[in-house]
Amino acid sequence: MSERNDRKVYVGRVVSDKMDKTVTVLVETYKTHKLYGKTSKIL
After folding, report:
1. Which residue stretches, if any, does this entry annotate as coiled coil (predicted)?
2. How far apart are CA 17 and CA 21, in angstroms?
């Protein structure tokens, strides 16, 4: 059997837990522009 790669761990904030078995989590990531170097927030 082959080993799995380590998965990336995301840290987020719980936005909604009104549903029975589901929660909505907001994960903020930042992406840097290749040419200009400006960082923008991806929601």
Report:
1. none
2. 8
The rounded distance, in Å, linking the Cα atoms of 12 and 20 is 20
Domain count, the chain: 1
Query: What DSSP state is assigned to residue 21?
Result: S
What is the pTM assigned to this prediction? 0.57
pLDDT digits (tens, 9 = 90+) for 1-43: 678 888 888 899 999 999 999 999 999 999 999 999 999 998 7
Structural domain range at position 38? 13-42
Please indicate, yes or no, if residue 37 is contained in any of the structural domains. yes
